[in-house]
Amino acid sequence: MGLLPEFLEKPVLWFTENEHEIRKALVTQPRWESRTALLEAGKKLPLFSLLRKLDELGYEKVLEVTRYGEFAHRGGIVDIFPVNLEHAVRIEFAGNNIEALEELSITSDLSRKEWLRVRVRTQPDELEELKKGEYVVHLDHGIGRYHGRDKLQDTPNQSLRSGAGRAINKNEDYLVIEYAQGDKLFVPEEIAARKISRYIGFQEPSVGRLGGFGWLHTKRKIREETEKLARELLTLYAERTVAQRPPVHFDPEILAQFAHSFVFDETPDQIKAWGDILKDLSSPHPMDRLIAGDVGFGKTEVALRAAAAFVSAGLQATLLSPTTVLADQHFLTAKERMEAIGIKVALLSRLQTKSETQRILNGITRGTVDVIIGTHRILSKDVLFQNLGLLIIDEEQRFGVKQKERFKQLRSSLDILSLTATPIPRTLSLILSGARSVSRIATPPPGRQVIETTVVKWNEELVKKALAHEFERGGQTYVLHNRIGTMEPFVKMLRALAPPAARIGTIHGRMPEKELIATMRALRAGTIDILVSTTIIENGLDLGSANTLIVEDATKLGLAQAWQLRGRIGRREIKAYAYFLYPGENPTETAQKRLEALEEAAQEIGAGWKLARRDLEIRGAGNILGREQSGFANRVGLNLYFQMLAEAVERLRSH
């Protein structure tokens, strides 16, 4: 049977029980013929026709069959592992006839359920965005250059192939892939989604000729290496697998009251993420889930509902933020809604006086404080929880080494919920390999508009017009100047460009905490029109009236940072504008790539996940895989590498 959703959803037993009906459908329903291969001993069938058919049905060519959906070809022998059997089959050919069919004692090294889960998670979704000249990976034939879509032309003196020997139809549309020495592979569009993915790597890949066993040997070698890395990844999470706690029995009435106070309609992805959390809470193992979604897409709402669930179960919850500004904002949001239904919320950061801090610490120890929101101050030794059940970590990558070590210790006993807008490469690698559970919130809130994003050289006239436009419509503007030492002269220059009546405020990381929070609250109250800031505003602002962002020098920002900053605006239904400017000299090659990726991603809502993958590509392998593994990843591309790694993780988990 073909690797089609309607077949993959059915258990193997279904095919045995319905064999008579399937054979009948093959005769009476033409569409079944294109989705099935009927193989019988003594039947006339040219070998190349079977290879073509297996390619069309979505099977992967390998050196040696080990799991569902694979086939191997040696001389007149073809081994196949059909998705409708629990074992592999060997087919022996004599000329154009099937001479013998033999059941092999090979069972899949991945269970059907695990194999399906990996396939769904790693399915490529980027074919529509391919540009001519980009590198791609064909599952059976390796790395080549994408040459566009075309109908077959007469091209003498070239090696032309379609899949695994399929006869080429000159009237059909093909994706064309170029290999070494002018070899071309023509891939029918209906097969492409199952066979082709965009090549993501850290250096120029090697492109070989079509044919031969080199690519199959490469895949086998890398599959062996991913097994080693999978063991390391799973060792990281082994303690959590062993750790147990009773399922969390929350009060549905309290949770319904809290959800009712949410002033927006939940998006489908928020609902799904919440469903994922409920499954985790019913499990006997502590939760360790990442909620990934663009800024303003509703991650915090899902996290606060989780906190309310734990409190209703008689446990405490804490939300850890990387900055005082963000902690203060989370506190204001949570306090208003939670205390209305009897949940006590406290803020713990460097803002409180000694007496206030002591009062809060006593409340945490006695259990009279239910939800604690704060900075890394929460991790101090004098913070003694009575009954902590849930730790929510907002933007984990922003914390230091010491805090991350503490997170590792806590992971073995607590339920953990992490939030991020753009996963860093290491986190992304864990997600793509299947070693971490993730819920993606990719659906924008109703009415959300694309932020109009401009990437150009610094231009005073442009800045002047942008400031005037936002001021005239009664809104607020963020201006990023990321050097504290030169902030004063920069503000002076900006005053000359801003409307005379505009009120300008400034914040940076060296300001006293109380002054910083006072400025942010003044901004929230609308008494500041233009805020000049360092990247301290990257996290922690949610103002519907701030809808213009001007970045003075975008070349100094990482991709994730730039995306986070851009997410500070456009959080309501109002049209927003982001200007990423750069100084007169040409940006470095890396900075140019980042700016191009940012500009491209800015054309759609919710592209943070895609941008994280691009960031992974630009940053290089040092941050994720280590030197040896990155070399293997380059040989097959990250998409296929992570698919193999995910398969290895699933296989080791099940044994």
CATH class of the largest domain: Alpha Beta
CATH superfamily of the largest domain: P-loop containing nucleotide triphosphate hydrolases
pLDDT under 50 segments (min length 5)? 155-159, 163-167
Number of helices: 24
Q: Largest sheet at a glance?
A: 7 strands, parallel
Number of strands: 24
Task: Give the helix level as a range of percent.
Answer: 25-40%
The third-level CATH topology of the largest domain is Rossmann fold
How does the overall form come out from the CA principal axes? Answer: globular
Q: Can you walk me through this structure?
A:
The protein has 4 domains: 104 residues, 2-Layer Sandwich (Penicillin-binding protein 1b fold); 140 residues, Thrombin, subunit H, CATH 2.40.10.170; 199 residues, P-loop containing nucleotide triphosphate hydrolases (Rossmann fold), CATH 3.40.50; 153 residues, Rossmann fold (3-Layer(aba) Sandwich). α8 crosses α23 and α21 runs antiparallel to α22. The chain is an alpha/beta fold. β23, α20 and β24 form a beta-alpha-beta unit. It is built from 24 helices and 24 strands. The longest helix is centred in the middle third of the chain and has 23 residues.
